[in-house]
Design a protein that fits this description.
It is a single chain. The chain has 254 residues and is an alpha+beta fold. The chain folds into 2 domains: 132 residues, Jelly Rolls; 80 residues, Winged helix-like DNA-binding domain superfamily/Winged helix DNA-binding domain (Arc Repressor Mutant, subunit A), CATH 1.10.10.10. The protein is built from 7 helices and 12 strands. The protein has a 4-stranded antiparallel sheet with strand order 1-8-3-6. Strand 9 and strand 10 form a beta hairpin. Helix 2 crosses helix 3 and helix 4 crosses helix 5. The longest helix is centred in the middle third of the chain and has 27 residues. The chain is elongated and about 60 Å long. The two termini are 25 Å apart.
Length: 254
Amino acid sequence: MEYRSQGYATHGRRPSRSQRPEKALYMTESLLEDDTDSNILSHLTDEDRTRLLDLGQRCDYAPGDHFFHQGEPHTGIHLIEYGRVRSYYTSPAGREITLGYWTAGHFLGAPQIFGGGFHMWSSVAVEPSQGVWLPGRELRALAHQIPGLAIGLIEGLVHKGKCYAALLQLVGTRPMCKRLAHLLLTLAGHHGEQNGGHTALDRRFTHEELARMIGATRQWVSLTLERFEKESLVGRDGAYIVVLDRKRLLEKSL
């Protein structure tokens, strides 16, 4: 179903992502979660920031390159300097579920940020990215010396804990249809362009990506989106999803 209405014509154009801050993307109950306090560098002075980054090693990642794989030993954390990274868990049967998409200022490698044990999930670049690997032992020593770093690490862990707890609650308590409606509202809030009462997502999300975010199959997502389109809840503008009726979609998500 193609969406075309008077007063809404994008002609394939979307706001430049450089014109707006890039947010992390993850499932929440409220749809209103903010990630402004999750940047561990925001608590540091310029001098302390330099001390922290001097500990690390910068690495560039092309799309598809992994920061680490599930099951590999924990040795520290990776601080994202730019780009977008997907964290995901793979079940013993090979099914994947996306835990979140992380952006600049977030760190990867929770919960054992000071090393030890093994990674419980994987993190992979989905666009050109750069990260700074910070070794766990040295990071722990520096956290003793810089209170702002310790606070930033704690707040980052709290932020991720809330994210993963919310995902667990949604997957464990809501039927699949409600999860998809909730996800579309979340995407509209994070990556949407308001126009005439409708919200067009400013990224092309494939059905496979949507399925991995709610623990569904691509085929199920395709069929359910078709049903949502017939109910005039969502539409299409080329390859982009448009939320047509936010109120009714919210009712369907509850």
